[in-house]
Write a structure and sequence with these properties.
Layout lengths: L5 E4 L6 E3 L25 E4 H7 L5 H13 L9 H14 L7 H7 L4 E6 L19 H13 L2 E4 L4 H8 L5 E4 L4 E3 L9 H4 L3 E2 L6 H14 L7 E4 L4 E4 L8 H12 L5 E6 L2 E6 L5 H11 L8 E7 L5 H10 L3 E5 L10 E3 L2 H27 L1
Parallel strand pairs: 1-3, 4-5, 4-13, 5-6, 13-14, 14-15
Antiparallel strand pairs: 1-2, 6-7, 7-8, 9-10, 10-12, 11-12
Helix pairs in contact: 2-9, 5-12, 8-9, 10-11
Length: 378
């Protein structure tokens, strides 16, 4: 198989999207739906159907396709001429501008509406680290998120186990959606006279899968022992197989180990994130569904006076970005230093910029509240 970047053609839209089944080049560049940019030279086009077929379970060639996709989901550099890469980046930024640069436009869109914040955790509130158990957020970020929650309903939406995310964030006033939204809980409102309001929001649509998830977790732990650096994380309603610390020459065998286990569990599916293989139930539930559930729980279902804002960095966050795009209400912000195919409207490069954006939102809201108070007193 030729090791090269791949552009996948969307049969419905005719848009070329860089999927990067790349060995020599591992950065993911993609055109936006509004106006596709020309892909760098050396890319070839294949159909979506053919690519997805190659990624199905079974067969050495399909395993190799998964390994290529694992490389593609873990971009580190681009093998291209500097001018070509710069042109492509500039084209991408035209359609996914910095949320910091467009801050005034964003706040103008919120006039007369209630902003509701949705935040991914890893790579958004905390940096990506080699050991997932040490993905701690900074005290400054925690303080910023705490202030944010004073002014806007705020939810953490993560692929992690909800309890683990809570142990990282440690803010009781937030809503938490763990396991890619399959485990949702909200803060109790103490002292509320309304019984309904005092109840904690709770949604666990995949509860029946718990015994199966635990069984697969135990099996994968045993099977992956022979792969140095591999780590299997039990996120309650889903599993994560981290390969960030695995030598690239071992990725093939790791993919084979995972797929050999999943052959016995057709009700579980395998997806990918940033140097992680995700194992989830086949139910129709994801971060986008979690966003919709939380909006409904907050009383904003079918409301025109709400502006949801979702910030995330991973493929799994695209489900939420697409929901906002399809609703034509609110917007997504992708956290990434490299252009990617995304349904997000804006971009930020790293958690430090996320914190800056959130702080600016807090300052903007505080100023508005202060002006409103002065107006009422006048």
């Amino acid at each position: 198989m030729t090791k090269q970047n791949v552009v996948m053609a969307d049969a419905k839209s005719g848009i070329n999207m860089a999927i990067a089944v790349a060995v020599s080049s591992s950065s993911l560049f993609a055109a936006t739906p509004e106006k596709p940019a020309a892909a760098p030279a050396g890319y070839v086009s294949i159909s979506r159907k053919k690519l997805l077929k190659n990624l199905e379970i079974g067969g050495g060639a399909r395993i190799n396709a998964w390994v290529e996709s694992m490389r593609a989901s873990s971009p580190t550099h681009i093998k291209s001429t500097p001018s070509l890469a710069d042109d492509y980046l500039n084209s991408w930024m035209l359609h996914h501008p910095s949320a910091l640069d467009m801050f005034e436009q964003i706040t103008n869109a919120s006039k007369g509406k209630k902003i509701v914040m949705f935040l991914d955790y890893d790579g958004t509130l905390s940096p990506i680290v080699d050991d997932p158990d040490r993905a701690f957020m900074s005290d400054a970020m925690r303080a910023t998120v705490r202030k944010l929650a004073r002014y806007f309903p705020t939810a953490i939406v993560s692929g992690r186990c909800r309890d683990k995310v809570y142990s990282f964030v440690r803010l009781a006033e937030l809503y938490y959606a763990g396991s890619h939204g399959m485990d949702i809980k909200g803060p109790s409102k103490k002292g509320s006279k309304c019984k309904k309001e005092s109840q904690t929001i709770l949604c666990q649509p995949a509860s029946e899968f718990l015994p199966m998830i635990d069984e697969v977790y135990q099996t994968l732990q045993e099977r992956t022992k022979s792969t140095p650096g591999a780590k299997v994380e039990n996120n309650k309603f889903c599993l994560s197989v981290h390969y960030r610390c695995v030598d690239e020459t071992k990725w093939n065998s790791l993919a084979q180990q995972v797929k050999s286990v999943l052959k016995e569990y057709p009700k579980l599916r395998l997806t990918q994130g940033r140097k992680v293989l995700e194992i989830r139930p086949t139910i129709k539930w994801d971060k986008g569904k979690a966003l919709e559930f939380l909006l409904e729980s907050l009383g904003f279902a079918n409301c025109n006076d709400v502006l949801p804002v979702y910030i995330g960095d991973d493929r799994t966050d695209e489900d939420a970005f697409k929901i906002l795009r399809d609703r034509g209400q609110g917007f997504g912000i992708l956290v990434s230093k490299a252009p990617k195919d995304t349904s997000a409207s804006y971009s930020l490069q790293e958690p430090a910029e996320v914190m800056d954006f959130l702080q600016r939102l807090v300052d903007w809201k505080k100023k508005r509240v202060s002006l409103q108070r002065r107006s009422r007193m006048a």
